[in-house]
Fold each of these.
Amino acid sequence: MRAKTNIVPVMTTFLLTTALFTVWPTSSYGQSTTEATQDAMSAKRNAKNDSGFKEFSDHVQAYFSLRKSAESSLPALKPTALPEMITAHQQALARKIREARANAERGDIFSEAAREAFRHVVREELQGPHGHRARRTIQQGEPLKSVRLHVNEPYPDGVPFTTVPPALLLKFPKLPEQVAYRIVVRDLVLLDSEANLVLDRIPGIFPETN
Amino acid sequence: MRNPRFLILCLLNCFVFIVRADDFKFPLKSNSVKFAAIGDMGTGEAPQLEVAERMNSSRQAFPFDFVIMLGDNIYGGSSPKDFEKKFEKPYKRLLDAGVKFYASLGNHDNPNERFYKPFNMNESNYYAFKKGNVRFFALDTNYMDAKQLVWLQKELQDAAGSNDWKICFFHHPLYSSGRTHGSSLELRALIEPLFIKYGVDVVFSGHDHVYERVKPENGIYYFTEGSSGQLRNGDLAKTGMTEDGFDTDRTFMLVEIAGDEMYFETMSRSGAVVDSGMIQRRPS
């Protein structure tokens, strides 16, 4: 009885040790595999974002060249005390750009790869550790409820601009001075701010606000 | 009022307040920097005109040379008629008297306002200028991108070595007890470290349609003046950070900087002084 009772802890120890040695390498290996997989996925994701953003920046550059040539036929806008001169320049520039991009469509600048990269960055930022700040920025920036914008049409006069969270601006590709990102309802809009013209948009990229 | 000590304390508090209000006087030094601050004004409605009229009449006693605009300069459109109705007409007498206006952009402003000469924005959404011993930095907080941040850091860095006052003004408040909007936390996390590092003294903002003076935060004085045309009556939920505030009428601010002291008075459109005081600059 004694021998029988003595062997139980021995067997238990043996089994536990065996189990530990069996599991340890597996678990360690599993952990590094997970990390490695995550790293690989993250690298793949970053590469995908980079390539999406690269494509976007190329399209913006192409737009900017086109804009430059459209603008060259107009007199440069200098500071003026006559608001009608500002309005006239804005409208003339918009007309020229619209003519030069007569067939422009949604997705021309925000290509599929670009859209995916922007969506990923927005999601990551808004769900990240400081996401509440960025969401609050949008909320405080008087989010619009029901404006519908179309490519090659002007941003409606008198409609306020929702503040774009700085955290996103710091992660999005840089733009030429005349072009800006805007948030309109749930869309990310690319706007030529001097011509006040909608260049492209990604619908539904932002969550609904209260 | 069974407790006489409580009664005496109450009376003393009233007395202190009244003495402070009565005692306040601008030094009106000949070489000081005198200006006014207005925010969220561009409605073209009667209250804006009344504030403008009060600013004009204040100028006889307090001859300010320029006005800083804290955004939402032109609400509801950017046609020539809007500029006329919401800026040129209300401030005509000030403009005719040679008072200069320096605008920052609010979320209701068309960015092309930067080309409007009377706003003195130098064709840029953000810019700096100097008056006497004061450097002003106008920011575009609708769009705080990397380029603007780099610019701000460089401008503040350049100014840091000088003995000048450093005043930033922009639309969205870093500290505000306004119920509707409140503090812009993301913006604060981004630009407040620069303000602290490079010794910004005072910050003026708008956006919340109230007046508020915040207790100094990291040695910096923050004012919200967002009721020079618009008003959200009762929107100020005074918090622990509020030093003083006013939310039942439209207001504007008068400021004089003389040497190391900044004197300010906040006035309602009826001419009542709703806040006043003097800020002593920190030793650099």
Amino acid sequence: MTFPILTAIVLAPVIGALVILFIPEKEDRIIKITAAVATFVSLALSIYAFLTYDLSVGGMQFTQDITWVEAFGIKYSVGVDGMSLPLVLLTAIVIFTGVFASWDMHNRVKEFFISLLVLVAGVFGVFVSRDLFFFYLFFEVAVIPMYLLIAIWGSTRKEYAAMKLTLYLLVGSAFALIGIIAVFLYAAQPEHLGVRTFDIFQLASVNYDFAFQKFVFFLFMIGFGFLVPMWPLHTWSPDGHVAAPTATSMLHAGVLMKLGGYGLIRAGVFFFPEGAKFWAPLIALLCIVNVVYGAMVAMQQKDLKFVIGYSSVSHMGYVLLGIASLNTMSIDGAVAQMFAHGIMTALFFALVGNIYHKAHTRMIAEFGGLAHQMPRVAAGFVIAGLASLGLPGLNNFVAEFLIFVGSFSVEKTLFGWLHFRVLSILAILGVVITAVYVLRVVQFTFFGPRNPKWDHLEDAKGVEMVPIVVLVGTLLLFGLYPQPLIGMINNGVVPLVEKINAAAQVGGIF
Amino acid sequence: MSWIDYAWLIPVFPAIAFVLIVFVTKKVRMLSALTAIVAMVLSLIFSLGVLFQVLGSHITMETPVEYSIPWLSVPGVHITAGVLIDPLTAVMLAVVTIIALLVEIYSVGYMADDEGFSRFFAYLSLFTFSMLGLVVANNYFQMFFFWELVGLCSYLLIGFYFYKNSAADANKKAFITNRVADFGFMLGIFFLWLVFGTFNFQELAEAIHHYENVGFLTLAAILVFIGPVGKSAQFPLHVWLPDAMEGPTPVSALIHAATMVAAGVYLLARGFVLFHAAPTALLVVAYIGGFTSLFAATIAITQDDIKRILAFSTLSQLGYMVMAIGVGSITAGMFHLTTHAFFKALLFLGAGSAIHAVHSNSIFDMGGLYKKMKVTTWTFVIGALALAGIFPLAGFWSKDEILLVTKEAGFTGLYVIGSFVAFLTAFYMFRLIFIAFFGEKHSDHHAHESPLTMTVPLIILAVFSVFVGFIGAPFVEHGFASLIYFEHPHHAEPDYGLMITSTIIALAGIGLAWLLYGKKAYDPEKLKQRFLPIWTLLYNKYYIDEVYQWFFDNVVMNIGAAFKWHDRKVIDGIADGFSALVRATGARLRFVQTGNLQTYALVLFAAVVIVVLWMAVPALGGM
């Protein structure tokens, strides 16, 4: 039997958490090192999997199956393809750097890292699951530690935000759960599969009738839409980002939101191509609101974390646009954008966390000239900002470019007069607005005359540099040389798009 | 060895220098400068090699050499990183590398006391990498990629003194204005890709040749043109360039006068086939260029900051180039780009030398510099004469070429505007010279000549400014016109009438400046008072910046505020209201759980009665 690499990726943080359980609270350095080692194992294995995945074969690789509940066809079944592997890598990078970004944590260190590691194990689990039951189970595993992390270690209206986030995510997952059960029951009917299974690929092979597709895709669209977050289901996310401690914000914005996009593609579009075609115009309209509205609200924010929180709302709109365009380039771009945005936003939160920890405020108006005291943080922030506004040479540009090209080539008309291309153009306009709010924040926080009030702030150094170097390096690597990432994603997207193209042409809702 | 096969190295040298400076030599100032300069020398050698190979072999505009490697390839879109070498590329490479090298040498002296010395050379290297990558691009995607990167370098260098609020405002303004322009450019590229399925210049040229839908081409061409309107600072997106003077002066010379801002003109020449196929778009190009040249020149006559005068002059001259291309002559446009690069770089570096000595940008703080700064003064005068278009300096030939093609193409209105701009140009340049270099000393400055690293580049540029025009003079066989052209070389006959007219116009401008500011035959202050409303309008740059600022503060920000209110009050209001409802309901329902057995039994009984009745009623009704 080959080494179960994906199971090892999921279990490494769990084992780390178990080890931490037996380390005394006061040995916080050892706890942190343990967490770093555990997440490094996941990261190393993810990189190994990324490098050894066989593109010429494609499909699900590194698979492993263990039957769990035979009567319901529930299997512990894992595997990754070109779509999920980059997201596994993303998760590994973000949590590894997140541990280093939490090096200054001194309050209940033990419980914090245990929660964090359990959370990330859940996220890994979602991305590697080939079984819908486990997909759902792992998702719930991720949500609960999130509540604790925010409510205990958070700031700024933390109880409100933690409760809001948890309720929103649970409501979202309830929609998804109804959808999953519906699919399970539908497929189990004798005229379809005739067996009870949660296997994603078996379920995807069923020919669902159009009415059913419309209904269940809607459930998934709302359920995963909460996570993405799709406007107007988004307000939990800026509050959650702001309240969460640094590493949690990084994971939350960097990875957790991607579960929504991934779920929408993997379960929504893959199962119900006709349902996707029917609802795509609605997603397209809402995602433009995400992009433009999110960016405009970000421009109004006074707290650094709120700016980034709303910028995530805006950027995830691009992911939705990629999905709604339903072609190879656009979905390649959507997955690439999830990766790129995850890295970029994790970098943002790591840097803001660094500033907040030292200055005890995140209010933009109190800063100015911070580049004097913190040149490295400033440089990192400028790079994250440039990535955010889609500068060539950084990863986000490639992703956004693919989404734009893909959505630009959609020949559809909404309501009989609104050409789909108009929506793409509005989305591209979002790039201009992004430049405005990003550069304003950069200017008001870092540029301008030296402010002696902040002379006591030390620049990032030592372990604090780990997140900055790793995340900036990743943005540059895949920005200058995108083929390995995009080629991998494309390998996973092509079968999906073939299925979309093979499905019947149906009119959209509008 | 074939230089062209190694042309891809030309951008790579400065890229390596950038990485080395950032990671290795940052702490050792002189080593950083040396790294940047050595890389630039290598790029220059290779560029000259390419230029001479192009001149010596049969590489013409019709038979370029092209090679590329795949960069990103997924079904539906294939993007390459490539090199396209034709005379247009070769000339542009030579111009950029020569000026970049001279500016870097100059900067060693100019930036000597600056804390950010190494950072400065790192940015300059990053810029030259991006600019050269743009020049060699064989497709629109690559062009756009480096187009944005030069924009980034411009942002970083304008904001080089990031601790100054004015610099931080200026670089943001530059980036955002260019972003607006690049939005249009990007859409243009997308439309071209949508119809023709490629970004490659050569393939597009071939495809456009056989394409009939002029309406579509016009749309695409105008969208693409928005890019150059931003980068080459044409009206109405010109607002960023004068503010860009917040950057160190060598940067103004290299980026905001000689090379980067000319990238827009270069793009128009590179993609001319598209504009040629869309005559309406070409008209737009011509009139935007012509208007900008006049518009900026009128502002320049009222300014008192030496760098701003030169910046508006740059706007105006870029307008000339754009106009030349608009009337159909990439030869004239590129020729003026080439000569302008030399004399405008010279003027900016000269201005830098003066600023370095006086520690002020205002021409009224200077005065009498010629006694102390002989080299600076005389090279500056040469540059100004070249810009004014005095025979036989560089600007004379290229400006006349533009006026000639404009006239020949039948654009009489633009020809008249162009000639008037020539008059204004001569006037504002010599107003500057008479006040700053020859007038009496105004402030208590202790000017002294700049060090050799600064004056030697000035002298070299002055030599170029005198002679570089001859490559395109009408009596030269196989000159510029037989090198860079569209479809077929157009060798213009010398038009002596036009030459004499334009010389008289230029001399008139200089003469008027001398009368007002040299001889002081009439007090300029009185003139200003007499035309005060007009002067105020010009001095405030027609208030266009204010209009944009008003739009941003009052329209954009208010929309943002409305959205924010909606997010907090409406969306969250509904969500929180819903949760309040649930809690309130729970609070009421709590009382149902009384724990009193009798109450439960009563409710149970009542329920049974209701259910029985509910079932019985239809049955009764059926009787």
